[in-house]
Design brief:
6 copies of one chain form a homohexamer.
Chain A (H helix, E strand, L loop, with lengths): L3 E2 H11 L12 E4 L5 E2 L1 E5 L4 H10 L3 E4 L16 H11 L3 E4 L2 H5 L4 H8 L7 E5 L7 E13 H11 L5 E4 L5 E11 L4 H7 L3 E5 L3 H10 L4 E5 L1 H5 L1 H16 L5 E4 L14
Parallel strand pairs in A: 4-5, 4-13, 5-6, 10-11, 11-12
Antiparallel strand pairs in A: 1-3, 2-6, 7-8, 8-10, 9-12
Helix pairs in contact in A: 1-10, 5-10
């Protein structure tokens, strides 16, 4: 059985995560690599950073799929005197391609927030927090329910144990009972209004800043907030995306080996302060 | 000795924190209240929120001075059907004024980051991280030195013990030796470039998000990062501002009683997860 | 019978003057006041100015409804050191609410220009001068007919006698016969094109400036112009709005007392020059 | 003595009213005509309208100088199917040039507001209301003093008698005593702030609208307002400009005949309403 | 039989080249002239330049119809001290009107590119290269086929012989076989994408610049390019427009004499360099 | 003698063509490659296109210096599925760097237009056509004189023989005598005004389009125009830049081998039409 070409892998990725679904400001798709080359091994990671390139080269990956774009804003240089250019040079010299599925993976169904919802133990019947205008079955964030009502502090503990290593902050009364939950992988400032409108008990997301969170809580009447690390909320999606790709290729008679990067690329390391 | 009028208090505050120093997008100065009324008791707080109004009314404050504006963007209504309007109604009905010193207090010398620097134990010879164009003795952030070199993890522990209750996250090798330190109260994303250019060993600030922090660390060659809570990094300034006001008024023969709010208005509460 | 709450009054006002009809740049609705408080007495006025507040406090009003917004553009302060802030402080201290119906009252049917049309004696079958895109039965301005053709100078005299005290200026041949009339309360520069397109004989409005009016007349073939004072063209609406509110509340079994402000807030006073 | 060429007339006009002084949005200078043609007769008028062209053709003018531009905004057609194009066609067919001195004449010294100040009887020592940034001896508006203090109503009567036929409206207490006066020919909304800052007793200008005037009076502490017709406040300048041109040309030994248009092009006609 | 008025000619032109079809940035229609005057002789030309005015006056034209606007961007002056103003003065003084049909003639069917397609020998079954959104039967450019396949160099020679005097440049392999052809009169940079999408063998247009053409060819897989002079690609339309106008007027019983300007207004003259 | 590193070459290039001189919209400097690698052979070319990469790989170049940027506008992908990405992949895989000196080389002294001036035989005392604001000795374009006056047609022939293969178009009377000459390599539309102001007899540049050139000639009183191919006007600079680089490196004791690309990357090929 011949190996798959990069072009075939891309076709399958785009069948699942249509680039047309990405936000207008986003930059998804193939970043470097030659669609005609064969692809046997695919590494899935959140961030296109140096330690992920190390892992790809050590393992012998032909393709790295990341959630975050290397160049979200356009560049006029990939010189190796820049850290992003070094990523490009190392990948091209070793015939490793880089492919990004970002906001198109966020809004896909299933997508990034479905995996997050499962990781924190929500029931499987999920619906979008902010449905896409063109297809309300897709969208940003997901809303689901816990198996039974619990205190906010219990939910936070449950989230911490279901996610990879993460910081975790809570806003709201720790003893408040929560049952309906909204989750959204990555920075969630812009979804605070949707979370209030949805009438959920708690909203789990990342990168919330003081002012929007403080004004949200002062306004009152809305859900509690749980803020985890950006990386930890998006990592659960990798395994799902890898499984979907390898299964789909296998159904076409093509074997692709996938690996989930286990390098924590959360910028924040934990220190033993206490 | 007659009490001070609000007008006199404002004149003294503006002598120390000139409104002309505020950023063009900022909204500083008197938010509500009548300059002709007497002021005997002044409450200093970070955020103009409901619990701070509770404290002001209980204590019998005539004036609340906050760091954060109530209306950073303009409003066309102060109706009591909004949470900000409720703040306005409660204050006006009880003849309590509200006054804000925000980015003009950030860049003053001494200002918000001087107090933060002292709180985490930097030596007293501080200089601005990003000097103001019109007067380089003022500016955003401060640069100082620790009494002796120490591991990054030790500095983080020192910061945690010097600040009021706060979350604390670290990026960089915990064993890295640090001695020169940049600090900036409040959200610090926009000062990452200045911190790198300053050649310091570590930059302590708040509200750093994944993408700017991750790209900053990947670029390499710069300082380690310590991210504390927004509220905790600004709170140390309150005592200093109160002291400067009461001393200056006393020098004019006027007694003003000041109080530092001890209500934690950090939106994030700590939960016992472990 | 219990008094009405402010919330109930607002609900009725919005049933008649839907805030969604207001222009995007406008600022309508509740400006200050608490929706939970009772409302027994409502004062209707064109402008939210100091003499109107005087009248409201003397009469014991619980609510002032004005046509013009206090803050058309957003403010970051309601300090009593500003004249608008003094309005806010006096109203809040006396538990008087302020509510605005502006461009939503202009386009309502019946609305501001219906009352103006009646005041100058047009027949009751009126149609909008510039119909709203979403519902052509509403819109800016009204077109109607006089009971019989008359000279332009006669129409001007008729308008002067039907309106409260006003300056009045006329452009066009005073002997021209007019029968179809367009009217629009408030500043009418932007409706000159609609008035020409409507084929009417005369257009009565306010605040017309030299250049648009001069170019309009030079272009020829259009209606004559009558320019009255801004205040005088909007005042007739107050009685109608008051009547509609009290009747609707009475139908619900609630008594609300209404009063039409008789303070002339036209900025222009007449002097005896001759 | 040979007649002057249009080019020579323009050179003299531009020596007195430098086009570089005009606002960036303005359109001054030669509108139509051939600089090589002789000019014996020059008609001065406020507006480039049909009745002024009638007068120019009847009198045999070679040049019409107006204060207002024919095309303030650019046009892509001068077809005779437009009223402005008809002006162009009639002028070109009869070899009559059209020249505009607008905001460059406003800020010149002496300029439009000097003539207005004299017309209402101010003392000759005038200074700009809003000095030009590049030369504070020039600028918009003029400030002067009355020969003796008088009631506002007396000043208004004095203004009415010193100006050509005009409407006249007053804001402020008619019995208020006024002595220092600011005047500005044409629409004066944008100079209200300067008039307040100047600390004058009364500001005479034109085309003031309800909202800016009402907010100005509500703010309190500023001058009274007198609003005359746009045309009437600019007409006094014509005689002065004509005199300056003919004198300057005579000094070069060239005879130019000037005429001040006596057609009232104020769009507003007076009707006998009483 | 009475002569036609300019108004009747314009009505017929607009029936064929509806001004509503013009691009929003364009300026089409009557530039000068009086619609009431009679029109017996009409000169058609590409550019409204001095030599075309010479020809119009010598021949005694009543109307000049050009493809290019005299004032594409608005002007505030038509003074004879400018070269465009001299065109206006000469035309108005001699009662000659000027009328423009530009992008409305480009997208008409038949329009400018139909005539170009015929001039270079394409078969008569043409379709738009970039169909108009509101009516796909109209649009910019035309696509057609050659009677038989030929080398690119042969097609270029054919184009050179079918057009009036023109420079001609070719990009692509001269021996490449071409059969399907896109043509667009005037500057064609903005249609390169449409030409590639259409899958034609060659695209003939004008005013192509180095960078867009170079990137187009480097991208590969698209048509060859032929760049002729702007004037030469639009000139063929003149005869067709003249024939359509005179026929349509004749059908109404009105005789109009038309003439195609034979002055080459291509700015580029050929020199004998070899 | 050790080879030079890319970093040293870049330092020398930037000493001669300071990146700070580039236009704000430009993208100059290192596009790909590793500054730490050695550089022995440098290929100079106008365009970073496939045939230039072919030449670089065949010759064994370590660095390609081009005048035109590969990515003038930013890109978010260098995938080999794009023609620009293929350039990047081929260069990086073969350890060939790409460096651009564009508008910084245009305004340098000597720069691109100096070489062009020499190629067409102007005397060596040249001055900028549009001097740079910060240093008037640099700037866009050059002005010089011919050894003796000649007919425009003779100058055009001289230019054709001095340049590499090029199309050549002339606007103006071929027999006009010319002596002072302005030249500017690359697209010259934006310098037409400067060329008129300079009072030269002829302006040689590239990529002039019909409308600006036609309006320029109609305005009259300015220079004749000669339009050559974009590529041909910039190619002469390559030899000079190569010579300056190798000399400067030799002076430091470092041998660098330079080669001028002899591939014509003008998009326009000549066909034998006659």
């Amino acid at each position: 059985m011949p190996p798959s070409s990069l072009a075939e892998i891309i076709a399958e990725m785009e069948a699942q995560y249509d680039p047309a679904w990405a936000e207008p400001w986003d930059a998804v798709g193939l970043v470097c690599g030659d669609p005609a080359l064969p692809v046997r091994k695919v590494l899935f990671a959140v961030d296109p950073v140096a330690v992920v390139v190390d892992e790809a080269l050590e393992w012998g990956a032909d393709l790295v799929v990341t959630h975050h774009p290397l160049y979200l804003r356009g560049t006029t240089t990939v010189a190796a005197s820049t850290f992003k250019g070094r990523v490009i040079h190392r990948l091209i010299r070793n015939d490793v391609a880089l492919y990004t599925a970002h906001t198109n993976a966020d809004v896909a169904s299933p997508g990034v927030s479905d995996a997050l919802a499962r990781a924190v133990g929500l029931s499987p019947d999920l619906r979008p927090l902010q449905p896409s205008a063109d297809d309300p079955r897709r969208g940003l964030g997901r809303i689901g329910t816990l198996p039974s009502p619990m205190a906010l502090r219990e939910f936070a503990a449950r989230a911490a144990s279901g996610l990879p290593p993460t910081s975790l902050k809570v806003a709201g009364d720790p003893e408040r009972t929560v049952e309906t939950v909204a989750v959204s992988g990555g920075a969630g400032d812009s979804l605070l209004g949707a979370a209030r409108a949805a009438g959920v008990d708690v909203f789990l997301t990342a990168d919330l800043r003081h002012h929007p969170a403080s004004e949200f809580m002062e306004a009152g009447g809305g859900p509690a907030l749980v803020d985890a690390s950006h990386w930890a909320t998006e990592w659960p999606w990798l395994a799902e995306a890898a499984e979907r790709l390898t299964s789909a290729m296998a159904a076409k008679g093509i074997t692709v080996e996938a690996r989930i990067s286990d390098v924590v690329t959360d910028v924040w390391t934990t220190t033993d302060l206490d």
